[in-house]
Amino acid sequence: MKKILFLTILAIQNIAAQIISYDNSFASNGKFTITNASNQHYINLTDTTDGSLYFTYAKESNIGTTFLSKLNTNGTIDSSFGNSGEVSIPYFSPGFPSILKKQTDGKLLVLGFYEDGTAITRVLPNGQIDLSFGINGTSKIPYIGMGFNADSFGIHLQNNKLIVYGTAFDSNYHLLNHSLIYRLNENGTIDQSFGNNGSINTKGNFIFVDNQSNIISFISNVINTNVYPYGALEKYNSSGQVFSDFGNNGVLAFNSSLGMVNTAFMDSNNYIVCANINNEIFRIHPTGVYDTSFIFDNNAPPFNDGNLSLYINEKNGNYYTSWITGSTGENILISKLTSTGSIDPSFNYSENTTAPLIINQMIINDNNIFATRGNQILKFSLNNPTLATINPLTANNTSISFENPVRQNLIYQSKEKISKIELYSSAGKIVKVLKDSFSPVSELPKGIYTAKITFENGSITTKKLIKN
C-alpha cells in the first residue's frame, strides 16, 4: 500500500560542488606536462572508471603523427601501455584535436587525417593496434576532412557501429559546400545499408546521434547560406533515411540568425547547446525551436569580459565552461551554468597564469575535473555536495507530502510552491534534480534516497524516500 508522508522542515546549509584546489596527488601538484608536446596540436582526453586517462597529442619533433598515451591514476605514464607508454599513429589533425573515443568494450578510436581523407584507427586497451579493424587497424574514408575553420568533422558511437562525418572535398582537394556522413560496421568497413549506399549528403557542419540513435545534422548557417540563410536542422533515422515527420520532409529551417556558431554539442536530453563568436550561449529544443527557458546573460560577470572556450560540458543537467579574461588573457575561469542558463554563483574558479592559454577539453566527474591547457593535463579536486551539514531547526508553516514508496514518478502535494527537489543517493551524491509532481524517476535504481526540497519562500526540508 502506498502511503502519503508529511515532512518536518529542516534548515540546511546550502552546499554545492566546487573546485577547491589542484589535486596534489596527481602528477606534479595536480599538473601533468607532456614532454615535447606541440602547442599547435590540442590534447584530447577520455577517462576510465578506475580514474586512469587516455590522451592524444603531437610532438614538436613529429607533428605529422598522433601519439596516444595512458596515465595512471596518480598522473604518471603507464609504461605497460603500447610501446613504453605510447602508441604512434601516422594520421594527424593539425591545429585541432584528434578525436578520441572509447567504446563500451574499452577499445579506443582515434580519428585523424591522411592526404586523401579521414582515417580512424582502433587501439586495444593495452595499447596494441586492433588488426581486426579496417586494414591493419585503420579504416580510411576518402574525400572528407576538416572545414574552413578546422571543424565540421567527428565520430560518434551508434550502438556497435560508428558514425563518421567530415566536410567533403573533390579530387583536386577543393572543399565542397556540403558534408558527408558515413556509418562503419564493427570491423571498420562502410555499411552500405546506411543512407544512400553508405552515406548521407548534408549541408550540416555539426552532426549528432541522439538518444534514439537518430542522426541530427545541424546547419549553423556556415555552409551554403543561400539555401538556409539562418541555418536549419536535418533529421534522419538510425539507418540514415530522412525522418519525414520532422519539419518539412526532415528539415526544419530557422527563422532568425544564430550568429557564427563555433561550438555545439548535444546534451543528454537531446538539446543542442551552442556558443557563437559573440560569446552567446543558447539551446535548441529537440523539436528544432529555440529553448526560451534557457537564458544565458553574457553581460554578467565573469562573462562580460574575455573569450569563451570552444568546449561546453554537461554533468547532472548543468553545463560547465571555461573562459580567459584580462588584458593579455592571463586569467582563466571555470564556471557552471544551471539547466536554465543562469550562472551558479557557488561554483566559480579563477587563476592567474603566465600565458594566455585557454582551458580546452574538460571531463567533469563527481569528485574531480580533468582539463587540458597548452601542453598540460590538469586535475582539480571538487568538494562533493552531501547532506552531512543538516541542522534540525524546525520551521512551522510549510508542508509537503510524498507518495512513498516511489515508483515510476515522484508524486507529491504541497501548499507552497516548490523551487526544486534534489534527490541524493545513499552515498550523498546528487542523482537527479526536478521540480514538478509526477516527474519521471523510473531510470533510478531501487533503493533509499534523500529528497532535499527547496520552496520558493526559501524554506528547505529533507525526507527519506524508498524507490521501488
From TrEMBL:
Keyword check for Signal: yes
Keywords: Signal
Record's keyword annotation contains Signal: yes
Gene3D superfamilies in the record: 2.80.10.50
Protein name: Delta-60 repeat domain-containing protein/Por secretion system C-terminal sorting domain-containing protein
